[in-house]
Amino acid sequence: MASDWRLEGEWIKNCNCAFGCPCDFNAPPTLGFCKGMLGMRITKGHFESTRLDGLVFIATVNFPGPLHEGNGQIQPIIDERATAEQREALFQILSGKHSAEGTLFHILTLIVTKIHDPAFVPFEFSFDKNGRVAKLVAKGVLETEVEPIKNPVTGAPHRIEVLMPEGFEYREAEVGSANIRSTGAIKFETNGSHGSLANVVQTPAGVAA
Hints:
Elements: E1 5-15, E2 34-47, E3 50-51, E4 56-63, E5 72-79, H1 84-94, H2 104-111, E6 112-115, E7 119-121, E8 123-128, E9 133-138, E10 142-147, E11 149-150, E12 157-158, E13 160-163, E14 172-182, E15 188-203, E16 206-207
Parallel strand pairs: 5-6, 5-7
Antiparallel strand pairs: 1-2, 1-15, 2-3, 2-4, 4-5, 8-9, 9-10, 10-14, 11-12, 13-14, 14-15, 15-16
């Protein structure tokens, strides 16, 4: 864990579960399995001397049961604008080799048993955390949108925030309603499932903000 890196940016995590990601509560997936995506638009970041500002990366995931039981699959999807040096920097961060034990990227190495070939694609990304609105398009691989949860009686927007003082993914997130259409190596589709939006700072020691 000698390398110096830092990622600041807009974090999105959408999955097939009901609102309120069970993983955040140490509970089993709503349907018994987890298919979803997570990722970030890096507003400011680096790995050693390589700048990563402005790039987007996501990963689609598939777990047959609770995440802590492992046997997961993952496909990295990287911004096609990244240079060869930047791609390698992102892969180094995602590898978990430069993160402390118990941090997000290290944990992923313990629960993922199959890594699909990465995709390098153009991205569209819009993000409004407070408005609980976001849209991410990884061209030809994945599309996902988040909107506010609606009151089932009145249709009015419903606001839920999750605070996790010891969270390894984020400290605070807005919860929304997500649609996902994944056509890459891990294929699935959801409508009105869970979505999380957060502003995150990740470092080798874990979440800094």
